């Protein structure tokens, strides 16, 4: 079959399978319809949930975030109970010597003392007794010409006197600023030598004067002294007023 007839026959044979495939594709029913084909059935029910899967691997740490702002301070908590006393720690090493302190004032700045005795017999009454025998008066705070002690350092002082009584009675008093502070009386016994004494603590201010004085009438001035009998008067500063 050569010639035009043969060529036409060959062309039909090549085109026929292609047309059959196209026709087959065009007649396929929609699979979503109930009657898609003779094998199609009703949709099934949803299946059960599957088992949880295994945990995944830990992820890597992320980058460190920026520091946040400081929060508001909370209220103060209750005080806790006192704990048990701990053990004593080991003894430390000796420290280094401290610096040398400043030089203080000498004690002589606050010295004031005197001790005197009587040299005259029967001193006049109602005037200071002048003790002219000087045992100690280094600061010259006692004036032998007046018989008075003059305070130069304010503070607390101690005064005492020890008197020999002879020939008549004795009435003496210790004065401070023209005022009698203490009194001493001794009644003389004939053919005998008596003793009279007294002591007192006084606070003195600068300029205060202290002395002994016979008081009363002239027959009460039996204060006596000679080469073997003394009548003495003394006083000294106990501690000064530092302020």
UniProtKB/TrEMBL annotation:
Basic and acidic residues bias (residue ranges): 54-70
Lineage, uppermost ranks: Eukaryota, Metazoa, Chordata, Craniata, Vertebrata
Annotated Gene3D superfamilies: 2.60.120.40
PROSITE patterns assigned: C1Q
Cited Pfam families: C1q, Collagen
SUPFAM superfamilies (alphabetical): TNF-like
Region (Disordered): 28-98
Family matches, as InterPro entries: C1q_dom, Collagen, Collagen/C1q_domain, Tumour_necrosis_fac-like_dom
A cellular component annotation (GO) from this entry: collagen trimer
Swiss-Prot/TrEMBL keywords: Collagen, Hydroxylation, Secreted, Signal
Keyword set includes Secreted: yes
Organism (species): Aptenodytes forsteri
Localization: Secreted
Name of the protein in question: Adiponectin
Transmembrane segments: none
Signal peptide: 1-24
Domain C1q: 107-243
């Amino acid at each position: 079959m050569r010639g035009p007839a043969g060529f036409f026959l060959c062309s039909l044979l090549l085109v026929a399978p292609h047309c059959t495939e196209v026709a087959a594709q065009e007649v396929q029913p929609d699979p979503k319809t109930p009657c898609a084909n003779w094998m199609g059935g009703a949709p099934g029910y949803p299946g059960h949930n599957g088992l949880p899967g295994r945990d995944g691997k830990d992820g890597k740490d992320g980058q460190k975030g920026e520091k946040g702002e400081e929060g508001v301070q909370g209220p103060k908590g209750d005080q806790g109970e006192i704990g048990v006393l701990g053990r004593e720690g080991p003894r430390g090493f000796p420290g280094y010597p401290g610096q040398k302190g400043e030089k203080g004032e000498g004690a002589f700045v606050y010295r004031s003392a005197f001790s005197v005795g009587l040299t005259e017999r029967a001193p006049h009454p109602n005037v200071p007794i002048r003790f002219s025998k000087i045992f100690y008066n280094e600061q010259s705070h006692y004036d032998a010409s007046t018989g008075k002690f003059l305070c130069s350092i304010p503070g607390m002082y101690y005064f005492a006197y020890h008197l020999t009584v002879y020939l008549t009675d004795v009435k003496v008093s210790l004065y401070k600023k023209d005022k009698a502070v203490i009194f001493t009386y001794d009644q003389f016994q004939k053919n005998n030598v008596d003793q009279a004494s007294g002591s007192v603590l006084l606070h003195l201010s600068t300029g205060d004067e202290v002395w002994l004085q016979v008081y009363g009438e002239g027959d009460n001035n039996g204060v006596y002294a000679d080469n073997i009998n003394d009548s003495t008067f003394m006083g000294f500063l106990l501690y000064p007023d530092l302020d």
